[in-house]
Amino acid sequence: MSTKRLPLEPDKYYHIYNHGNANDDLFKEEKNYKYFLTRFYHYANSVSETFAYCLMPNHYHFLIKIKTESELKKGFLKKYPKKNLQSIEELTTFTSNQFSNFFNAYAKAFNKMYNRRGALFIDAFGRKEVKDRDYLINLVHYIHYNPVHHGFVNKIEDWNFSSYNFIISGNEPNIKWKEVINWFNDLDNFIFCHQQKPTDL
What we know:
Elements: E1 13-19, H1 30-44, E2 48-56, E3 59-66, H2 69-79, H3 88-113, E4 126-130, H4 133-149, H5 164-169, H6 177-183, H7 187-194
Antiparallel strand pairs: 1-3, 1-4, 2-3
Helix pairs in contact: 1-3, 2-3
């Protein structure tokens, strides 16, 4: 099954990502990054928790965890109070649609702002299940290291559009920063690991 069609199942972690269509940028100005994140949380917080992210001019990465089945049912019934929930497949479709609706909404707003037409993203968003702790830790490091890897900055902390500095400061309610730090045992080790070059995933 294509990773772009992999169902987002309850209580599982996923790496989600995508790229601008052709050579197009997804973000042209600082306000684009801020708007993207604001709208992302608006849609995604109802079905998932966010642990790490990085936005770069032409692509993005997120590490999320889908909420539990009972939490998703509450969200589904809140949005569709008159609908009779029949199966877990309806919940996974509901979850994927929250992300798809967000990306579509951002693309429409971006196109309108810059008098642009056509697809903004290269395809449906990619998603890959994260199944073990080591991979989880490496993925957090990989996501935060992306701006260095692509030559935008020399140090991770110099990039303003990732979760790295928010995790260190602990002042972003939309990021599960305490859990991330615990994966690295403590804040000092989180910082130390991020000073190294990550293992390719």
